[in-house]
Design brief:
Layout lengths: L2 H21 L1 E7 L3 H11 L5 E4 L14 E2 L13 H20 L9 E2 L3 E5 L5 H17 L4 H4 E3 L2 H7 L8 E5 L3 E3 L1 H14 L3 E3 L3 E7 L2 E7 L2 E10 L9 H4 L5 E12 L10 E4 L4 E5 L3 E5 L13 H14 L7 E13 L5 E4 L6 E5 L5 H16 L19
Parallel strand pairs: 1-2, 1-12, 2-9, 5-14, 12-19
Antiparallel strand pairs: 3-8, 4-8, 5-7, 6-7, 10-11, 11-12, 13-16, 13-17, 14-15, 15-16, 18-19
Helix pairs in contact: 2-7, 2-10, 3-10
This protein binds flavin-adenine dinucleotide.
Amino acid sequence: MPIHYLKVSVKIILVTSFLKHMNTVYDVIIIGGGIAGASLAYHLVSQGVKTLLFDRQDQGWATQAGAGIVSPFTASNAIGFGNDSLFHFAVEALEYYPILMKQLDKQSDSSIFANNGLMVVAVTEDELEKFEELKSTICQRFEKRALSTTKELRFLSNDEAQQMFPPLAETKGAIYVSRAAQVDGRLIAQALYEAAEQHDLTVKPVGVEQLIIQNQVVKGVVANGNTFLAQKVAIAGGAWSIEFEKQLGLKIPIEPLRGQIIHLNVTNINTTNKPIISTVSDRYMMSWPDNRLVVGASRESVGFDIHTTVTGVHEVLGEALRVTPGLKDASLREIRVGLRPIAQDQLPILGTAPNIDNLYLATGLGNAGLAAGPYIGKVVAEVILGKNSQSNIDAFNVQRFNS
Ligand SMILES: Cc1cc2nc3c(=O)[nH]c(=O)nc-3n(C[C@H](O)[C@H](O)[C@H](O)COP(=O)(O)OP(=O)(O)OC[C@H]3O[C@@H](n4cnc5c(N)ncnc54)[C@H](O)[C@@H]3O)c2cc1C
């Protein structure tokens, strides 16, 4: 075919596809395709909701980098878990994981989600004070959920701790919590997309520049210069969600918190069914069956800078070797960097917007977004569809910053 005919037909196809989107009014448009957007999309389309998802695929999106600890009973107060609403929501999120895995037909895939528990350790005398504090916080949280500590908690001697995780340094204190799990962020997001695409989710790998708002009602978005219409729009843009603040006239106070996290390859250590190791200062080592040990992570307020740094890598590896000297012969496999979307008060920002109709938020997932993200998608989908939800998310409404 002559080249100019080819050009004409390509133009016709582009114009036709543009007109098709111009004419289509989606039920819901989602902005952002990390764990929050992917889960929201899955929970909408699986109920027959016509959904279009935009994902700009910014480098440093958190879901591809996150460690994936799912452990509300041991999570530190310093990352928001002193708040009871967040704690109870996170427990519901943990309980939802096996249900979701079954729905996705991935219940036996332990490379995505595994329930291996978590061990908190102190390896020096001067960590014992913090260790005791954390121990009592953990016990109180079990009481809050009316769960038996005798069944779910074990205080371990040094020998028992070493047996469970041989690379550990001598422990001065160790507590094992069985009600804790781990998830691979990339794989769970992929599984959600695969399931959503079977229900006709439309995904566009471009950025949304603007919302279309008329008389305080959202009508759609402008993406790549084109208009896309929808009955409802949800913002799930991670650390970038703040871009819509100005247009909405709404405070969405989220900041990126950079995390550098290192994947090691180990051949002399069995990495299957091992508990996550967590230090009293929130550093961790997590094992995956493919000879992989993940150690992390840095916490750096450096804006949207996604570089790996000598200081970050030094800090993460230094702490890993101090707590687990048995890793000294491990080889470096990969360094990942991600930007956690942290709200001013460290709680997620979920649900309706106070001043704009038909606009929803699923953002500010913070330090525990891989743990809560799949459940957040379910609950925000229920809010969008006006359904009763098991969870009350009023405490997470953006109104709290805009009264
Ligand atoms: C090092 C590290 C360790 C972590 N460890 C854990 C952990 O152990 N447990 C845990 O639960 N969580 C952990 N997290 C946190 C977790 O990863 C995040 O909370 C979660 O992934 C956030 O998901 P999200 O979907 O909100 O955002 P993201 O995954 O960042 O996705 C946002 C997406 O929105 C897109 N986007 C933004 N604006 C637009 C726009 N205008 N148009 C189109 N697309 C747009 C971006 O390109 C991006 O793809 C960790 C994070 C890091 C970085």
